[in-house]
Design brief:
It is built from 9 helices and 3 strands, in the order H-H-H-H-E-E-E-H-H-H-H-H. By secondary structure, the chain is mainly alpha-helical. The chain has one domain: Orthogonal Bundle (hpI Integrase, Chain A). A hairpin with an 8-residue loop joins strand 2 and strand 3. The two termini are 15 Å apart. 32% of the residues are buried.
């Protein structure tokens, strides 16, 4: 459907500058299809913490959240009566107020009952805010449980949001605000990959 979005290897910490295997050698694309995201949500619903884990996937995907933005979410960012969420962007990005889906609202209300007394939405088994490393391991495991045949990581959900918006022919300037990009050039990366599905229809 789309061409690959690849990233280069990064050196590890320490004196030895070992190179991590490039993403392009691990998989040919850096996004998930809607069907794969659906399978991921289904797998989350069968996990030990179904409400929390489904919300993690849905919010990251539907709102194009980075892992740090997702895990830093606090309950005062959720406006139940207004059915909206305040998204605080990192990296000097554009903050925004976004609509919540009916499914998200339903899960949020259930989660609120499970984590009473906590400021953060997403809590670990130890009762602490979930770490990015824990979230990364969770997404990787859910990908395996969902039968996705390549390794996945949380940032793929953000990329998937951007590509889905382009596929749906959404306004690119509005997408810039939706994803919180400080630079419009960062948004244009999603329009640089063309879909020609249905060409012979």
């Amino acid at each position: 459907m789309w061409a690959a979005l690849t990233m280069g290897a990064e050196p590890t910490n320490g004196n030895e500058r070992k190179k991590r295997q490039p993403y392009s050698e691990m998989r040919s694309r850096e996004y998930l299809t809607e069907g794969e995201v659906g399978s991921l949500v289904d797998a989350a619903g069968k996990s030990a913490y179904p409400v929390r884990n489904k919300l993690l996937i849905l919010l990251a995907y539907n709102h194009g959240l980075r892992a740090s933005e997702l895990l830093d979410l606090k309950w005062d960012a959720i406006a139940f009566e207004d059915e909206s969420i305040f998204v605080k962007r990192t990296k000097g990005g554009i903050d925004s107020v976004q609509d919540l889906s009916k499914e998200e609202l339903h899960l949020l209300k259930r989660l609120a009952g499970e984590v009473k007394g906590h400021r953060h939405l997403f809590i670990s088994r130890q009762g602490l805010p979930m770490s990015t490393s824990t979230f990364r391991k969770l997404v990787s495991q859910l990908g395996k449980d969902a039968g996705i045949e390549f390794s996945i990581h949380p940032h793929m959900l953000r990329h998937s949001c951007g590509y889905r918006a382009v596929e749906a022919d959404k306004n690119m300037r509005k997408l810039q605000i939706y994803l919180g990009h400080k630079s419009y050039q960062n948004t244009l990366r999603y329009s640089a990959v063309a879909s020609v599905r249905g060409f012979w229809d």
